[in-house]
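User: Predict the complex with manganese (II) ion.
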Amino acid sequence: MPAYESAHEGEPNEGEPYEGAWAQRAEAELPGFRHQQETERCLEHGLRGAPTITDRTIPTFSRGELPHFAGERGTFLKCPFVEDVREVGDAEVAVFGVPLDAGATYRPGTRFGPQGIRRSTNLFGTYCYELGVDLREQLNMVDIGDVFTIPGNLEKSFDQISQAMAHVVSNGVTPVVIGGDHSIGYPTIRGMAPHVDGNIGIIHFDRHVDTQESDLDERMHTCPWFHANNISNAPATNLVQIGIGGWQAPRAGVRVSRERGTTIITVSDVERVGVEKVAEIALETAWKDAKAVYLSFDIDVVDAGFVPGTGWPEPGGLLPREALKLVRKVAEAGLAGVEIVECSPPYDWAEQTALLSSRVILDSLATLVRTGRLGRKAARRSGAAWGPEAA
Ligand SMILES: [Mn+2]
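Assistant: Here is the predicted structure with manganese (II) ion placed in the model:
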């Protein structure tokens, strides 16, 4: 695929004046094998369409991507589902849900986050125009379902989450975690840390500082980094926190972040120095003497007007396009995993919070593919896999 040469994504440069023109050409270079394969499988499993249907790729029963409103398979982006998680190692990326809201201190509902976010992806195709990436063709991604969380018991749920994370990571697979409230940031890091040969940096998007030791006498969603940063190879000095501010950053957490030396960037900082510079600072901090960087994205970092369906909405956050551009910039350097948290579908009256949550995952993955950090591992076992063909 032709490389888009611009130093700054989306900005004109010499020889290739517009991203729009580049993307229009780049599409021609993308493979279409997996789409072809899916069409054939759909016709076989879903029977050929009625004689009056002119398009002979349409089956009687919906079995694939189309139509987007039907044939809901319940997986993220309708990617392949893996029933036997012992076989997760055949994939390059594994998506799993963590339906948990026991850590919410105000609005509940994030236990429905995985369900809502997966459903919102029915709307999307597998191809992104301006990134020039088609995930179905280029990424061996699977959905392995949800962690069995224990409603009402945070600590048992944490143990389940850490065990799930460790299983995926120890199989050499990149995890994508769909929360759940932000308390899961601690058990996800705890599950990953023993499998990283060095320090883990965390890029944390949020309106809230999330660094206090306990809240309401438990390790709630205000507390993940206090405990994650106690893990020896996940130090606070590699924690960069973007978008913090407003009237819901408890002083107990601010004190901890100050004492431990986390790096905090406010929404005004983003406005003042710009997305490019903020991404640069974030990468420098997270990657300093680190072996891996993890993205923990709380959807409430985006202005409450765009994301009503969240546990603790705080007006004045990032604009969606700022947030997505920041995600793409930090993903360029590589990510060992991604989690998206705090999407609460019961409060999400037009699915916009779930849609934006899905975009954070999709844009991260597409950037990792575009920069060549993902997209090389072919499935060997599954005939219905996505991504590159086995040699
Ligand atoms: Mn938050």
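Strands lie at 93-98, 127-128, 133-134, 141-146, 174-179, 199-205, 239-242, 263-265, 290-298, 337-341.
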